[in-house]
Amino acid sequence: MNSYQRKNTIASNKEKLDVILINATNLAVVYQDLYKVYSAIEPPTWSLLLAESCRSKNYKVGILDCDAERLSLNQTVHRINEDVPRLLVFTVYGQNPNSGTTGMAGALEYATAIKKDIPELPICFVGSHTSALPLEVLIEDCVDIVLLNEGVYALHSLLASDLDGDLSLINGIGYKKQDLLH
């Protein structure tokens, strides 16, 4: 889909997306200039699995794969602004068990920029690093919610809520409320 088609798709979509699953990039940090030619692009497997799970519950889902589209930080923020969802979920996974940790630098950089531009947008993280160290991830200023384990059922429950209510009723998450971690 080219940018013209994407803009028209977004413009014609009257209903707000429930969630955008974002696969942020940190290839430039990890591989420096080599990423432009030599780094592989890993399919966003967990984003795809979570998206299909949410679609099966009739939620409106988008995926933004910054790696595959080679989106810069500014391009990513612009794209989120084009179609602001109810919830933005950073899926920080990979085929290698360490991918969740190595991907955190890029995810936090992107989340910080998006939170600065759209402070009211709830930002959520899910991934192996997040499950292993949920409080450390939740301490980050740009992170509002963390999903524990794979996050499938917790994400369904979050999307079924109004996201402003009592999140303590939702199992499998950590969250901030008035700067306190829960």
From TrEMBL:
Keywords: Iron, Iron-sulfur, Metal-binding, S-adenosyl-L-methionine. Gene3D superfamilies: Cobalamin-binding domain. Pfam families: B12-binding (PF02310). Its cofactor is [4Fe-4S] cluster. GO terms for molecular function: cobalamin binding; iron-sulfur cluster binding; metal ion binding. Coiled coil: none annotated. It comes from marine metagenome. InterPro entries: BchE-like (IPR051198), Cobalamin-bd (IPR006158). This is B12-binding domain-containing protein. Residues 41-158 form the B12-binding domain.
